[in-house]
Please model this.
Amino acid sequence: MALLAIDAGTGSVRAVIFDETGTQLAAAGREWEHRNDPRFPGSMDFEVDRNFGLVSESIREALELAGLRGSDIAGVSATSMREGFVAFDAAGKELWACANVDARASAEVTELRELGAQIEAESYAISGQTFALSAQPRLRWLAKHLPEIYERIDAIEMLSDWVLTRLTGVTVSEPTNACTSGMFSLEDRAWSAEIARMCGLRDDIFPRVVEPGSIVGEVTARAAETTGLAVGTPVVAGGGDAQLAALALGVVDPGQTAISGGTFWQQMVNISELRTDPQMRIRVDCHAIPGVWQAEGIVFTPGLAARWFRDAFGGPEKERAAREGRDPYDLLTERAGHVPPGSHGVIPIFSDVMNYGAWMHAAPSFLNLSLDVARSGTDVLFRALMENAAIVTRGNLGVIASFTGTSSDEVVFASGAAKSPVWTQIVADVLQVPVRVPVVKEATALGAALCAGAAVGSFDDLASAGRSVAAWERVVEPDVANAGVYDEAYGRWQAAYPAQLELARSGVTEPMWRAPGI
Model:
């Protein structure tokens, strides 16, 4: 029995085929870009027709690579970037769509906050989301700038749901991605008409909600023709990328913590009692498992920072890697591994601890450099950059513990950064807990496949599916000798960052990123 997962990310889409044990059989993908409408600064339109063509190409190629026919696929599900959404008319035709990186609605964020002093706090208490990344400002933008589209909206869906609609013609949503819209009740696992009305929006645009792992329809003849799948193949609700990655990592029980170390680093802490942060610093999401929620911290762009460093300062490593057929990241991390913990006192200023209600990051920089090259060379700076991701992770987990009362005695560390033994050891040492590294580090697509498998009988339920496929490559123990070093490094970073943030706020430096409306 083969299961197909469609993973619609920010920069690409992948079709990944697994067997019923979770073993990957084949994968194919296509890069995509989101179109800026020159009339509207900050816009990033999601081009539905072109992008479904890329989805279809990826599915056909994956089937060919696996040596399978469409009829060999027992079930298909989808996962996607969160926050992006699609608006449909009454005939089920897409009217408008945006990617998660769409930033056109900054003025509307400000307008929403001006509606009332407590409106964002009240919305956050229900949804776990602030206005910075949610759908309300974008819908208000539509009502203002494209009213002819706004008035015709019959339903909105998140992008993972949209993939399923393209396959089945059925319009539904599920909680793990819908909750990132900011118009979804965490407690009820249902759309919140109350929030829509609170924000001056229509309250009649929400589709039926189903749970991840539920069959929503079958592949239509039209979809079969373009994708190579068989007519009648069950299509199953999937979910948001971070939540389905947690599912595939076996992080399905209250108290467990997962860290996804990709372009962004996400810290997902499972909680059994719904709580939101009184200070709105952390987002809270629905887990794929009903009765479990996730408090989620985000470290901004460690993956992009590593790539920037490689391209800006890693020329010799790139040249050597090309000669030796290696990855320049491996050479950089190997060199960083020889630098003492704490990076000779260099203080990295990149991401700040998450502050979801007023999110802003200082200008990227390194502080406390020495004129001694041995104490501030490429190897030292790259290690400091790696340590920054772990330090901010520690800060985010501390914030989560402060309002949930939940802290873990171990963490699961996945995605690209988990491939690095040096980075994994840094995480263990900064957090001073054991770090479990899974065999499958890119777990998002696997999580979607588990949803499909649970629906067609490969697993009893989603939680048992996650537990059954989670397998560990290694467990990294913290070096207790480094606890004091990183306590000191964390304290110095905590003292230094606010001053750098104030420089960005005052316009002396350019912030790395600021949320819309800030």
Q: What stands out?
A: The longest strand covers residues 12-19. The radius of gyration is 23 Å. The mean pLDDT is 96.
